Amino acid sequence: MGGDSFWSSDDESVIHNCEQNNLCTSPHPNITLSDSDLDLEFQQRTTQHVRSQVLRTYHQLHARCQSSELQHAKIRILSYSPGAWIQKPSDAKLTDYDIPNTTTLILVGPKGSGKSTLLNRISKVFESGKFTPDKAQVSYMPSNGDGTYFLQEYTIPRDSTSFCLYDTRSLSDCLSDNDLMLKRWLEKGVRHGEVVIRNTDDSSLKRRLQSRARHSFYNSSMVRKVNFVIFVVNGVSVLKAMNSKGAATTVQHYNQLVAAAFRSPYLSFRDDKPTLAVTHGDLLSLADRVRVRVYLGELLGIPPATQIFDIPEIDDAATDLVITDMLRYSLEHADKNLPHKNKIVKNYAKIQVMVLMCVLLLIAMGMSFLQKRAHHGRGWTNHASKPDLRINWHEIRHLW
From the CB of residue 145, how many other CB atoms can be counted at a distance below 10 Å? Predict the structure, then answer.
């Protein structure tokens, strides 16, 4: 996405031809179109315009790499602190918000999407360089590998407390499994070392995971609230599903799974949907990478030029710059959606009032019970003699 490793004169001509064609698609003024034709014309022109915008991002990225922008972008990310990028109203203060000690981003995606690889690539951008050892375990063959079963927390950079990324278990083909898993993470938080077991896992896998969790893994006591989500997809798998024809197949199911999980209400923060990272673009042509981004934008309802980030497995300045763009977008939206303290205090006050009312009610019930018991005891003493409860053993000796 910039640099000699992927940019060529052919790519320049692709951009030039697309923009020229986009300018030549103006409707003929002397032809009257029907409503359906107008709708189709509008849709085609919109798609062409979006495709031109996406192409332009690659051109701009190529130009940005020629400047010192990458270094400034790194410094901006490294100087981040939780809440620093809050978009607050003019009458609000930073102290009005519930700001976490560490901003937490989680990576979510289907199996083989490249979450662990992406995490290692992000780490190398902000540490000693491309020779930095990998942090996350990567499956060499995703179809045969175990993948990530335990939640893994990685601070960026190492030993920093500003923000962290969580590598998670891949999405399941079972939508109900995904709903339960995403709901647990987004509502209850994530914890380093926690094993992720699905309802549909077979019994042998569940036993192996439980054994590994007991004997060979460290569980952190720190539960972190998720502040924003980075959704990761494999660009090659998306393109295969786009090109597949005929009846529904396993290949086509990939895009359906992506759409269903991405639209989960648990992944959205108010009106903000997750950041989308597209991996394995280095295996595709520039034209196909543009097609994938435009298609995903239409499928998921997000702008492909600004919310979808093409991150190939290439160690170059362009990829580093896209990674910093993706992190900046994610951290800005994490800060944007931080909860307001007033709401938290108000809810806490309501809980306190309810607890106090329950305690007072229990005290009142207890006092009423004691008064009735005391009154009943006095009535027995004044109006009737207590029965003789002594046992006459002589009269009942025949029982034994």
Answer: 14
- What is the DSSP pairing of strand 163-167 with strand 103-108? parallel
Q: From CA 281, how far away is CA 232, in angstroms rounded?
A: 12
H/E element, 249: none
CB 187 within 8 A of CB 177: no
CA distance 145 to 256: 23
List the structure tokens of 344.
């938290």
Confirm if 319 and 281 have CB atoms less than 8 A apart: no
Structure token pair of residue 196: 């992720």
Could you tell me which of 137, 163, 150 has the C-alpha nearest to residue 219?
A: 150
pLDDT band at 398 (very low <50, low <70, confident <90, very high): low
**Are the C-beta atoms of residues 96 and 340 closer than 8 Å to each other?**
yes
Max Cα–Cα distance, the chain, nearest Å: 125
pLDDT-derived band of residue 188, with 50, 70 and 90 as boundaries? very high
Q: Which amino acid is at 187?
A: E
* 192 contacts 153 by C-beta, under 8 angstroms: yes
C-alpha 328/C-alpha 331 separation (Å) is 5
* Residue with tokens 């062409």, as numbered in its chain: 48
| Residue 195, strand partner residues | 150
Tokens 């329950």, residue?
Answer: 358
Q: What is the 3-state secondary structure (H, E, C) of 30-72?
A: CCCCCHHHHHHHHHHHHHHHHHHHHHHHHHHHHHHCCCCHHHH
160-176 pLDDT per residue, tens: 899 999 999 999 999 99
What domains can you pick out in the chain, each with its CATH number? 50-87+95-343 (3.40.50.300)
First vs last Cα of the chain: how many Å apart?
Answer: 101
CA 308 to each of CA 87, 161, 203, 235, 323: distance values in angstroms, whole numbers, following the listed order: 22, 27, 38, 11, 11
How many helices (H) and strands (E) are present in the chain, helices listed first? 11, 8
For residues 371-375, give the mean pLDDT. Answer: 71
Residue-wise pLDDT for 263-278, tens only, equals 999 999 999 999 999 9
- Tokens 């949907």 locate to 273
Angle, vertex CA 231, rays to CA 227 and CA 233, nearest 5: 170
233 C-beta neighbours (distance < 10 Å), count: 28
Which residue's entry shows tokens 């972008």? 73
Which amino acid, 111? K
